[in-house]
Amino acid sequence: MKTRYSIAIHGGAGTLIKGKMTPEKEKAYRDTLQLALDEGFKILKNKGSAIDAVEKAVVVLEDSPLFNAGKGSVFTAGGTHEMDAAIMEGKELKAGAVSLVNGIKNPVSLARIIMEKSPHVLLAGQGAMDFARHHGFQLESADYFHDEFRYQQWQKIKDSEQFQLDHSESKDSKFGTVGAVACDMHGNLAAATSTGGMTNKNWGRIGDSPLIGIGNYANNNTCAASCTGSGEFFIRGVVAYDVSCLMEYKKLSLREAAEEVIQHRLLKINGDGGLIAVDNKGNIAMPFNTEGMYRGMRSSNGKNVVAIYED
């Protein structure tokens, strides 16, 4: 029996209140989410690999200024951009991740090169930049990453102890991470996550996104997951791996495991956010415990969903 292939994506979770966004802005978000889904799904439909599909989908989201990753990354306390990303495949549990890099147009692609061309999993800062140059990555100027909306966000809280999770006035508003998970025709799974971090972040803070097993995980025997939320809580809850563990050891279904982690375990430690996950049968779960999560999924059974709010 041929495996049902499918892909899911997210563009961040948080306080996304209906009516607060202009129809034009909402359409722009939905159109970009659909484009990322379509580009990833096209690879799966043409018998491509899950790892190629998730990388492609995340690249589309990184290239859009609407999302806090790649081009749309927020400003740090020093007025720079520090980006993180991770990618993992479920067949051999190979993974690559990068943290605290700047000037890299598509951090997810750098994470993949780390996975494929180095003996390491996670590279950070100057060493990661040297590795990128060694492998021919062209660096973009700061202008490429400058987004006026994000700059004004930073201006409001710079020189203070405050930090902010992407899109709104309160620090707990929208968690700007993008991600993708996929199951290909061969039942292979993959996950990718990318982020620009927190506005006004300081001291080289690293969230959950580039940490394997926390913000990103894939294992063909269980699931592939990509997370978005208040990173410190996801780190403490080892969230992505926790979903896999519940499937492996307690034999929960993908939906049961994902719901347990997001709606119970994470809430117990006051963590908020969500995740997307896929199992080796192509089933998708997209739970979140916030008002909304930019998300979408597409499957070979004809299902196509793009959503923002809880509806």
What does this structure look like?
The protein has a single domain, classed as Glutamine Phosphoribosylpyrophosphate, subunit 1, domain 1, CATH 3.60.20.30. Residues 163-173 have low confidence and may be disordered. The protein has 311 residues and is an alpha+beta fold. It is globular and about 45 Å long. The strands form 2 sheets. Strands 1, 2, 3, 4, 5, 6, 7, 12 and 13 form a 9-stranded mixed sheet that branches. The chain has a 4-stranded antiparallel sheet with strand order 8-9-10-11. The chain has helices at residues 23-45, 50-62, 107-117, 125-134, 142-145, 148-157, 231-237, 239-249, 254-268, and strands spanning 6-14, 83-89, 95-101, 122-124, 174-175, 177-183, 189-195, 216-218, 223-229, 273-279, 284-285, 292-299, 304-309. Helix 1 packs antiparallel against helix 2. The protein is 33% helix and 24% strand. The protein contains 9 helices and 13 strands. It starts with 5 loop residues before the first strand and ends with a strand. Strand 12 and strand 13 form a beta hairpin. Keywords: Autocatalytic cleavage, Hydrolase, Protease. The active site is at 177 (nucleophile). One of its GO terms (biological process) is proteolysis. InterPro entries: Ntn_hydrolases_N, Peptidase_T2. Pfam families: Asparaginase_2.
